[in-house]
Amino acid sequence: MTVNTTTEAPAVRDQECLLCGAAPGQPCQPKPEGDHLARYLDAYTAGQLTKAYMAMVLGELVVIDQCAVITAAGAR
Predict the structure, then answer these.
(1) Domain segments of the chain: what residues?
(2) Can you tell me the distance from the alpha carbon of 5 to that of 27, in angstroms, rounded to the nearest whole number?
(3) In whole angstroms, what is the distance from residue 42 CA to residue 75 CA?
(4) 69 phi and psi, to 5 degrees?
(5) Does the chain have fewer CB atoms within 10 Å around its N or its C terminus?
(6) pLDDT per position as a tens digit, 26-73
C-alpha cells in the first residue's frame, strides 16, 4: 500500500527505519521512493514533524498500518 503526500519531510530519514532497517538518508522503498509510516511516527514522536503534517499524512491513508509506505512528493 502506498500513499502520496504533497510535501516531503526530510526529518523522516534522519534515523534508521526500525521496521525494515533502511539506513539514515535512504528510502525504505526505492521505486517509487517512499518510507514506512513507522518512520513518520518515530519522527513525529521525536518532535521533528508537526501535528498538522502528520494529520495530512494520516488523512491520505485508507488503512492505517505501520507498514504502509508514504511516497515522496510529486509521485501522483
Answers:
(1) 2-71
(2) 15
(3) 23
(4) -105, 125
(5) C
(6) 999 998 899 999 999 999 999 999 999 999 888 888 878 878 888 865
The continuous run of DSSP H or E covering 58 comes out as: helix 51-59
Cα–Cα dist 31/75, whole Å: 10
Q: Which amino acid is at 21?
A: G
The per-residue DSSP string of 8-55 comes to --GGGGGS--TTT-PPTTS-SBTTTTEEEHHHHHHHHHTT-S-HHHHH
Q: Which three cell numbers stand for residue 34?
A: 517512499
Q: Tell me the pTM.
A: 0.78
What radius of gyration, in Å, describes the C-alpha atoms of the chain?
11
